[in-house]
Write a structure and sequence with these properties.
CATH class of the largest domain: Alpha Beta
Number of strands: 9
Structural class: alpha/beta
Radius of gyration: 23 Å
Distance between the termini: 39 Å
Strand content: 5-15%
Bound molecules: S-adenosylmethionine
Strand order of the largest sheet: 6-5-4-7-9-8
CATH architecture of the largest domain: 3-Layer(aba) Sandwich
Largest sheet: 6 strands, mixed
CATH topology of the largest domain: Rossmann fold
Order of helices and strands: HHEHHEEHHHHHHHEHEHEEHEE
């Protein structure tokens, strides 16, 4: 074959391995989504100690016929560092047991539904967000602004506006991530908020970030500017004002405008590195909070 000419077998096998890796990359995301939907992190957490495959099957109320498949799913996720396996001191008569890692510990739900990042996984891996990736080449050949609009005929915020169930899931997912990040941000760099008397979080979702700031700095009057279909769902306002509007029309006056931007590793491949590096903030006219994950 022409394309193999002049190439060593090693080179060819390496090239083919890269292809296969890319072909099956989506299995990592979908296995994670499956684990979250089955409630595996919570089942291991509730068990209070490493859990065997048979105990995990019964904790998840799955048929024993699914044991080999659950074992395979766990093997995938152990390989990705989501779970860990304890081999019971190498005793062949003892079943191996699964435990949480720092990654899956983030997925455990608590009484407060906005902590625990399971809902973020469910929101971002929802078909509404994932399906448009099937339309990337169609988008290149079309006049549509995004693959998302090829798939849905409109933008993401129109979909959240017309689909209350997805709106709720998306907002909860964003809120869980905002709450997680804001607590770390305040712990490590809370001093950026010193001296501010008012702050508006633009596109601030259901107010997770604003609530965390307002509780940590009661002297800062926090408000959230959001689209009307998000503001209409807000139940818990605490000391935060919610303003329904469009940031492209106007932004209410405040000492600081807060805009949270996140570059997780796959997105940082797409966009040029931002000027502001990991947890490093500048206060210009706008308090622009940009996090770049360290990996
Ligand atoms: C990716 S979410 C981020 C939510 C939150 N800031 C966070 O970091 O978790 C973007 C938010 O911007 C809001 N949004 C989008 N377009 C907007 C606009 N034109 N004016 C105000 N808010 C907008 C959306 O409703 C959504 O809640």
């Amino acid at each position: 074959m022409e394309f193999t000419e002049g190439k060593s077998s090693d080179e060819l096998m390496r090239a083919q391995t890269v292809l296969w890796t890319h072909i099956f990359n989506h299995i990592d995301s979908m296995s994670l989504k499956c684990a979250v939907e089955l409630g595996i992190p919570d089942a291991i957490h509730s068990h209070g100690k490493p859990i065997t495959l048979s105990d995990l099957l019964s904790a998840l109320s799955l048929s024993p016929a699914k044991a080999p498949h659950l074992q395979r799913l766990m093997r995938m996720l152990i390989h990705s560092g989501i779970f860990a396996q304890n081999n019971n001191g190498g005793d062949d008569n003892e079943e191996d047991a699964y435990s949480l890692t720092p990654v899956s510990s983030l997925l455990v739900k608590s009484n407060d539904s906005t902590t625990g990042l399971s809902v973020l996984v469910a929101a971002v891996l929802h078909p509404v967000i994932v399906n448009p990736f099937q339309s990337m080449s169609a988008w290149f050949k079309s006049d549509e602004p995004t693959p998302f609009s090829v798939e849905h005929g409109c933008g993401l915020w129109e979909v959240t506006g017309r689909d209350p169930e997805f709106n709720k899931l998306f907002n909860e997912g964003m809120a869980s991530d905002a709450k997680f990040l804001m607590n770390i941000l305040l712990r490590d760099c809370g001093d950026v908020f010193q001296g501010i008397e008012s702050l508006v979080d633009v596109g601030g979702g259901t107010g997770s970030a604003a609530i965390v700031i307002s509780e940590a700095f009661p002297n800062v009057k926090c408000s959230v500017l959001e689209l009307p279909h998000v503001v209409s769902t807000i139940k818990e306002k605490r000391d935060v004002d919610f303003i329904a509007g469009d940031m492209f029309d106007s932004i209410p006056p405040a000492d600081a405008i807060f805009l949270k931007v996140r570059y997780p590793p796959p997105l940082s491949k797409l966009f040029p590195p931002p000027l502001i590096q990991y947890f490093n903030f500048v206060r210009l006219e706008c308090l622009y909070v940009c996090t770049v994950d360290p990996s």
